[in-house]
Amino acid sequence: MWAILPIVGLLIGLVIGGFISIEVPAAYVKYFSIAILAALDSVFGGIRSTMEDRFDSTKMISGFFVNALAAALLAYLGDRLAIDLYMAAVFAFGVRLFDNIARIRHLLIDKWRNRS
Amino acid sequence: MKRSQGFTLCLSLTAVLICLGVLLSVQFKSMDTKERSLYVQRPENLIAMIRDLTDKRQKLNLEVNDLSRQLITHQDDTQDDQALFQSLSAELNKLDIVNGSKPVRGPGLEITFQPYSSLFYGDISKVVNELWAAGAEAIAIGGQRITADAYIFYEKENDAVHITVNNIRIPYPLIINAIGNANNLEKGLTLPGGIIDNLAYFKTYPRLEKKEDLEIPAVSSVPYFYFMKEYVPPATDPTPAPSADKS
């Protein structure tokens, strides 16, 4: 029953973001996108840990913000240093994201099988 | 216990997801803007865009040329119209002055006949003729403008004879004003054996006075032509019409 709340939260967030007239400057869109990737990874990680019954909200929330900031900062630093750290972040978070999604899928399938 | 823990989990997840939602939509908007910015366009697209814009600019240039040409023609038209209007109004003004539709002023000669001078209307006619001949540009007798159709005659009342101009009685002292070169006008009248000499026989001595500024009024009634029409010479037809009405 509570499961619907996060989805509602996501929608609320999208609407809020749609209404506030903040736009990321074109030069920083890249860093912002990597931050979002990190945030997505944290969210999927959170979902997965919830399903695995080892969810820690502090860890997840801190992970959400710290990962996002760190990813953005590293990407920025990489650009300053002429190293594509951006790619490293994309790779790391991408792999983790898919990993998390795969785990979630597995867990859901297991759950569904156990129920039937 | 388990339930409330699940609730807090959901709550924190919700909070995080709200943040994520905000981030996502902001990013979508930003990407939208960025995609539209030229910064990130592919060179091929940029080339195509430049070509498009160049074409458009050429078209607009052509349009500008066309429109400015139109503007110039319109201006010319109005200028022509204005020039035509000006020349026409100048012409009209001239005709008004010549026909006496407008009062005029200028230097000239003033001829005054004292009362009881033995004056015949023919004398006035002669004076006027002499003045025209001497180059008068406008003449008025007793305030009556002498135009092409003016007539000088006389009117008898009891024993007195009055000079009339256009059937209007001219009171004494009878004053003839003529605009023109005053010296010429005077000489025209005072030629030996001229009209003044002639009048002297009849003990009539008009006073001639050169004036710097004479005013001659307009005609009292503008002539209207009922019968007169402009003569248009018949166009010479190169192919003579067959004479069908030979009865």
What's the helix and strand layout?
The complex is a heterodimer of chains A (116) and B (247).
Chain A (H helix, E strand, L loop, with lengths): L3 H16 L9 H23 L5 H25 L3 H31 L1
Chain B lengths: L1 H35 L6 H57 L4 E10 L7 H13 L4 E4 L2 E3 L5 E6 L2 E6 L2 E2 L4 E6 L2 H8 L5 H7 L5 E10 L31
Antiparallel strand pairs in B: 1-7, 1-8, 2-3, 2-7, 4-5, 5-6
Features:
heterodimer; A: mainly alpha; B: 247 residues; Alpha-Beta Plaits; 2 domains; three-stranded antiparallel sheet; 5 helices; 49% helix
How would you describe what is shown here?
The complex is a heterodimer of chains A (116) and B (247). Chain A is mainly alpha-helical and 116 residues long. Chain A has one domain. Chain A contains 4 helices and no strands. In chain A, helix 2 packs antiparallel against helix 3. The mean pLDDT of chain A is 85. Chain B has 247 residues and is of the alpha+beta class. Chain B folds into 2 domains: 32-99; 104-216, 2-Layer Sandwich (Alpha-Beta Plaits). Chain B has 5 helices and 8 strands; from the N terminus they run H-H-E-H-E-E-E-E-E-E-H-H-E. Chain B has helices spanning 2-36, 43-99, 121-133, 182-189, 195-201, and strands at residues 104-113, 138-141, 144-146, 152-157, 160-165, 168-169, 174-179, 207-216. In chain B, the strands form 2 sheets. In chain B, strands 3-2-7-1-8 form a 5-stranded antiparallel beta sheet, covered by helices on one side. In chain B, strands 4-5-6 form a 3-stranded antiparallel beta sheet, with helices on one face. In chain B, helix 3 packs across helix 4 (182-189). Classes of the chains: A mainly alpha (116), B alpha+beta (247). The interface between A and B is medium-sized, with 40 and 30 residues.
